[in-house]
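Sample A.
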Amino acid sequence: MDGDQITGGSILRPNFISHGTLGCKNLEKTREFYEAFLGLECVRTSQNSMMIRLGGQHIYAVVQVGEEKDVMPRHYHNGLDVDTDEEVDAAYKTVLENADEWGIHSVNRPAPIHGTYCFKFWDLDDNCWEILSNPKDGYTWIFEQGDQEGRGHMDRNFRDKRPDR
């Protein structure tokens, strides 16, 4: 897909959402958590920043902001996709078993939400993560459904309409 198909007649004409930003309290501890626990690829970009990615070219810049970092609200979470609901359950168990060691807190139980099966937890930096069952291309399936009416995918009766489900 080229930029014309993506942005249509927009005023700005970007090609790609390349990155987002996360704050952290201690870059070294955060990097260890991201690499050893979450399995993210990390590269240091300065004494107080790094970039992370997993499974694609979209990256997050991670910036050390210190101990005064705010708790990320649950709606601002970061999604980590797995293939099956069983993998979500296994990840949930792993998160609970390792919570004390890695500073993980506020772990929600897995549940079917917005067409996926998922749970959320907060890390040592108070960033919110969601582990969810999603196909290889992530939320592409929801774009294929087009605009939703009313509460859309937040409706409790919303059903996943992916062909493989």
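Sample B.
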Amino acid sequence: MGSVMEYKSPWGTALYIMSSVSVIIMLGIPLIIFIIKRNDWPFFNIIFILLPLILLIAALFTIRGYILTPDMLFIKRLLWKTRIDLSDLVSVEVDPQAMDKSIRTFGNGGMFSFSGYYRNKKLGLYRAFVTSPKLSVILKFKNRTILITPNNPVDFTNTIKQYRSID
């Protein structure tokens, strides 16, 4: 087995729907205001600039995949990679229901990803880098929990267990 494994992060149905609705709203409202020529409204310029800007910023945080090495996990974003040190990883498991009944405490709830900080009874506070909740893999560390969604959760889990010598 090679020392670097790459996994895609496929979009689930909910993410497709939420992202599509977000694009329609964030671009549609400024377009409608522009078409009806209501540039005399006090907040016209703010809406016209702010909504597309929010959309662009969210797009930058899109999760494109994961790169797994024996020591690190990299979350591939649009223009950069988020680095997660695996040295204090305690356990890893596949759980398609891991994100069920979660409440977002800070982050993005479906505009190109489900990312940021969430909480539920099962996991407590956790950080999500998710595109398809049904592919969830829970990474438990000594002081934190991370949720990711690689295209092949079982292979990812087996690979990381071999790399880190955990059960």
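B remarks: The chain has one domain: 8-167. Residues 8-167 form one domain.
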